[in-house]
Amino acid sequence: MSMILYHGEPNGPSLTALAMVGETGLDVDCRPIALLRGERHTIPGLTEPLARDMGLEGEGPVLVVDGEAMTESVFLAQYMDEMAGNALQPKDAYAHWQMMMWCRRITERCAPAAAFLGNKAFASPVLAAMADAEFDAAIAPIVSGDLKQRWIETRADSMTEAAVGNAMADSTTKLTAAVQMVEDQLADGREWLMGDVSIADIETYGWLAGAEALVPGVWDNRPRAAAWAARVRSRPSVAAALARATVAQPETAWAPGPEINRWG
């Protein structure tokens, strides 16, 4: 079986996927791609690209297994964990449900908020500086009309001042709420979110690794959450993932991601 992971800088969902390679010890060929040049959409050798083309996560990592594209960081984490013996998912059915509900909260509320703030601060200027021809070439292979539109909007930074203010405030609230959720979850003295270390820890840290750059002071007065983040960061798998960075500050590397939650 051939497994190739195409990934961006170790931040957000790419950090989750890279850390899971280390956690599982699977033989995965990790290949960096430039997400902001659209390289995710020109991956060679795909026999089944549907998940890559229509994934909701946006410009996240792509795991290619014998020619089939697999996407969405939580699903990739589960796939790799189950391939390696299922060490990072609770065996108890209720505890497993709790973990999945936690991950859904992160991917549906925290991830779009982090992506909005990250793209506003860091990706929009990069895309805006692109020549029109270069930008058009980058988005030409994108199959999803929704994702292509997010690229266009990210480059144009075209929201009205009022809409930007509302989105910034809402996203800041949701990102802060995610850190507070971690703080509250650890109130009983546990070290990891589900008791034992799990996919929930890896996925949550992936989206919160750059939180301080997006919401300065977000870890202040949340000592349990800050200590948890330090524990996750010090895991050999996460340290190895971060060591793959090709830029000085991978936590500022963003690309058009999950659509901002329109349902509140």
From TrEMBL:
SUPFAM superfamilies: GST C-terminal domain-like, Thioredoxin-like. It comes from the Bacteria. Residues 124-254 form the GST C-terminal domain. Pfam families: DUF7962. This is Glutathione S-transferase family protein. It comes from Novosphingobium ovatum. The lineage of its organism: Bacteria, Pseudomonadati, Pseudomonadota, Alphaproteobacteria, Sphingomonadales.
